[in-house]
Amino acid sequence: MSKLLITILCSCLLFAGCITSQTSTGSHHERVSRDIAEILAKAEQDASIGENIRVTVNLLTTSVTDSFAVGGLMQRVYGDVTVTSRSEAFAQSGLQISVAGEDFSAQLDIAKQKLKSSQDSELFLVLADGATGSINIGKEITVPRFYYFNRWYSGINYEFRKAGRSLQVTARKLPSGLIEMELTPVFSRFLSDGGDLEMTELTTTVTARPGQVVVIGGDTSSGENVANALLGYRKEGEMKETLITVTPHIR
């Protein structure tokens, strides 16, 4: 609607310039044309400022016995090509964050057909440029002991404490048209005082095109790493793990 009003306004200005006295020179028309150009440029700038970033998130939870079907998909990513910032501690976490290849979504759909049991859910975040939101992975999930940043967190006196699990996302538009996402694992209501454990040492920055898929997975075979604590699920002998895909869009 705003674009239509701007177009009508510009047409009126141009028409007003055309019906002026025939004795007038082309200077008025040129001035009106410049005014129109300035109006359109400002409208373009305002529209850009008003754009939000929509982050679509898919969570695919499978049994460990089915994990082979989706595990091979991690080979169809570009590795660290677009991971622009990552700490040394990340390598010890067992997490894998990469940008997917062009055929990843199609291959994922094929892999889903081979699964005996799975849960596939979708959610989304709408963020202003530079704003932060959370991807909820699970609530009241029993978190096993895990090793993080060269220390054991058994020191905070917990044994398989129940907590929420999420990824904190900060999204920014870059002048190049790409989208930068800063990802931080979080365990909510996890500390002995009821506070959240934000793993800022594992914060990873990824740059992707709008519509490009970012894959978040990890090695959950180890019982004592962050990937297992964040993406794994074990209860009464039942073992599951979650694969996360994150796709940013400009809206």
From TrEMBL:
The keyword Cytoplasm does not apply. One of its GO terms (biological process) is protein secretion. Residues 1-16 form the signal peptide. Pfam families: Secretin. InterPro entries: T2SS/T3SS_dom. Residues 125-222 form the Type II/III secretion system secretin-like domain. Keywords: Signal. Belongs to the bacterial secretin family. This is Succinyl-CoA synthetase, beta subunit. It comes from Candidatus Scalindua japonica. The lineage of its organism: Bacteria, Pseudomonadati, Planctomycetota, Candidatus Brocadiia, Candidatus Brocadiales.
